[in-house]
Design brief:
single chain; Rna Polymerase Sigma Factor, Chain: A; Arc Repressor Mutant, subunit A; 2 domains; 10 helices
């Protein structure tokens, strides 16, 4: 545990040095930052854009913006947090330009109550577990497409990327209570969309079992 903490501190110190070097005009330092954070930026972009080509364009725009505004990065947050926020905003702006629809602002606080957030939290099977299973990924993806962008991004950062509530709030510029509220609504909406799919699968398995005769269901006898 101590070794892991020391490694994290070492990585953080290394990143801080790279950021400060990049601010002073060291292009190689910025390229190293890009190398370290491209995978995260791409995953976040793919979650929102779906299209690989659009996601790659978002990643390029993200790092161009980061390079252009590097002096504005105050280092109070981690560089990965800053990059993620830029990637999310860039992806949402691209969605608006592509679909010409007005999306929910990530800075808009919810007015709904959140009294039951902690009591309706996890569900089985877990969304992140479903996401990792190839045969169910398309089902979940279609359900995710139906979520408002604000709720969808929160869900993906929390339940797919494994970010904490505090990290997600910091990345998106939201309060922790707003993150919890959006996550609750996303989980409930996904459950609403996915339950019929699992119900159909269960009915199908039941019919298959009933169609098999007693001889098929009976375990084969062992040889004397």
């Amino acid at each position: 545990m101590v070794t892991v903490e020391r490694q994290r501190e070492s990585d953080s110190d290394s990143e801080t040095l790279l950021v400060r070097a990049a601010k002073e005009g060291d292009v190689a330092a910025f390229e190293e930052l890009v190398t370290r954070h491209t995978a995260l930026a791409f995953r976040v972009a793919m979650h929102i854009m779906i299209s690989r080509e659009d996601a790659e364009e978002v990643v390029q725009d993200t790092f161009l913006k980061a390079f252009s505004h590097l002096q504005c990065f105050e280092e109070r947050a981690r560089f990965s947090t800053w990059i993620t926020r830029i990637a999310v905003n860039t992806a949402l702006m691209k969605i608006r330009s592509l679909r010409r629809v007005q999306t929910i602002s990530l800075d808009q606080e919810t007015k709904e109550g959140i009294l039951f957030i902690d009591t309706v939290a996890d569900w089985k099977p877990n969304p992140d577990q479903l996401y990792s299973q190839g045969e169910l990924r398309n089902i979940l993806q279609r359900a995710l497409d139906l979520l408002p962008h604000g709720n969808r991004v929160v869900f993906l950062l929390r339940d797919v990327e494994g970010m904490s509530t505090e990290e997600t709030a910091e990345m998106l510029g939201l309060s922790t209570s707003n993150v919890k509220a959006r996550l609750l609504r996303a989980r409930l909406k996904l459950r609403e969309h996915l339950n019929p799919c699992f119900a159909r699968e269960t009915r199908s398995e039941t019919r298959d079992t009933r169609s098999r005769g007693p001889a098929e269901l009976q375990a084969p006898a062992t040889a004397p």
